[in-house]
Design goal:
This protein is α+β, with helices and mostly antiparallel strands. It has eight helices and 13 strands. It is globular, with a radius of gyration of 20 Å.
């Protein structure tokens, strides 16, 4: 079947891609061979809106059937980082070759340190079609770009997690004061080595919370005895796939190793199961994030889909 490729052109395309990802996710047995729709939302309302990561226009391409149905989507998450979202019913080597051709022409990034043009493509380590194709085209597997996507069946008993004295787990409140605390916790969790003067405020949360799947009752935090937010896990529940996606999860350095991240994740499982979720999913750990490995392997299982970045420099040099 001949597919037609075109660039992202209008707001309706976003919602079509969102529905497409839901269908692909289900056809792939609720496994992350493609993005879940929640990741698309997070990219748009946080990655693009707050971090300037790529953009929909100029960085997203659609392949359609003669009937106008989506068969594949190519998008970047940031310049140089390309993701191939493919309906398994339409997947062929020829299609993926065409998508890589477009990525190497339209989605090129420039290395901050090296100054070299590059493209990095994610592939499931067990996906022979894509990994063979990437190898043939001169891509090199980078273990430091790895994530492991895990899935927990919520029919399994959800563990009880004892909290240290004085800590409490709850959902985010609606007031700005809670947003300020949550933003500061995020800064401390993800920028532990940065000086505090680089912190640029909390209003970025307003955009992230506009994402369609955001629910304040599933934005779980652990409150310290001091009243500050010490740990957090935002849970995105997709009621179409009946699956949750955790992004982000973090704990302030001074509150780590107390079981708080485990507690907020488990509370998210409990609440989303009550809403009808069948599975909880998370990405992280693996070669590129060893500190998260024990937490995610313990709660979601040791096995998962290993997704690794394959890097190619486009200047012809090794």
């Amino acid at each position: 079947m001949k597919l037609h490729m075109r660039p992202y052109a209008r707001e309706d395309d976003y919602w079509a891609i969102r529905d497409f990802l839901r269908g692909v996710y289900l056809r792939n047995g609720r496994t992350e061979h493609s993005w879940p729709a929640a990741r698309l939302d997070w990219w748009r309302w946080h990655g693009i809106a707050n971090c300037g990561a790529g953009g929909l226009e100029g960085g997203t391409f659609l392949w359609e059937t003669p009937a106008g149905e989506l068969a594949a989507v190519l998008n970047w998450e940031d310049r140089g980082y390309a993701f191939l979202q493919v309906d398994p019913r339409s997947r062929t080597q020829a299609l993926e070759e065409e998508m890589l051709d477009v990525a190497e022409r339209e989605l090129v990034g420039v290395g901050r340190a090296s100054g070299r043009p590059f493209v990095c493509v994610t592939a499931d380590d067990g996906d022979a079609l894509r990994t063979d194709l990437l190898t043939q085209r001169g891509y090199v597997r980078r273990g430091d770009f790895q994530q492991i996507f895990r899935k927990r069946d919520l029919a399994l008993p959800i563990p009880e997690v004892p909290l240290p004295t004085g800590y409490a787990v709850r959902a985010m409140r609606a007031d700005d004061e809670d947003r300020k605390k949550r933003s500061w916790a995020s800064w401390r969790a993800f920028h532990p080595e940065e000086p505090n003067w680089k912190y640029d405020g909390w209003t970025w949360l307003n955009s992230a919370m506009r994402a369609p799947m955001y629910r304040r009752d599933l934005d779980i935090v652990a409150e310290a005895p001091s009243g500050e937010i010490a740990s957090f896990a935002t849970v995105w529940y997709d009621d179409v796939t009946r699956t949750t996606y955790y992004e982000p999860v973090g704990t302030m350095p001074e509150h780590q190793r107390r079981g708080l991240a485990k507690a907020v994740i488990v509370e998210g499982m409990r609440r989303s199961k009550d809403l009808g979720a069948l599975f909880a999913t998370v990405g992280g750990g693996g070669e590129s994030n060893p500190p998260a490995e024990p937490l995610y392997a313990g709660l979601f299982g040791k096995d998962g889909i290993s997704m690794t970045g394959w890097l190619k420099y486009l200047d012809g040099n090794p």
